[in-house]
# Entry
Amino acid sequence: DADVTQTPRNRITKTGKRIMLECSQTKGHDRMYWYRQDPGLGLRLIYYSFDVKDINKGEISDGYSVSRQAQAKFSLSLESAIPNQTALYFCATSAGQGASQPQHFGDGTRLSIL
Amino acid sequence: AQSVTQLDSQVPVFEEAPVELRCNYSSSVSVYLFWYVQYPNQGLQLLLKYLSGSTLVKGINGFEAEFNKSQTSFHLRKPSVHISDTAEYFCAVSDQSFQKLVFGTGTRLLVSP
# Structure
């Protein structure tokens, strides 16, 4: 089983719909992240959480919200989806010992908004 | 704030040839540097990281990178590539006090027979 699991893997929806992307991990890591990947732009940080009670905005948080339901679960919501939120979304985790620890990524959710 | 520049969006190379993927960073503080690889339909995997010490860092799959502080570079190299190395490669930087990775825009390595 994957250490970082994202559901769904693919989603097509319409403008204005509310969407939730889920991430769960079995690595026991405290830190979790949501990124979006767009061609030619690399990965950009949306939100991050260093523990269950800690939520922080990243570089591009507008139009998104998150919930850290437990140490192992971190969900990303699009309250009212718009076409320019079409992208590949990644969840990642890292151990809490500091900036030297690498991040571990899920396989991504491909989201298309029509 | 940190930033990362990967000047080459795509690098074509023949199998068994050497390759260098370039990465330059900008930061006013000391940083940690990472290279990640993304195979088709997968998430990113860590190739190698530079934290401190020796400026030549060896990673998985025969890759290595050299940290050059004066040139603010962290180029990735492999002496002989395989078809299976075809993937997208991302350079990333993090300041040493706070673990937010800043990624470059990626370089697609295309290895042909």
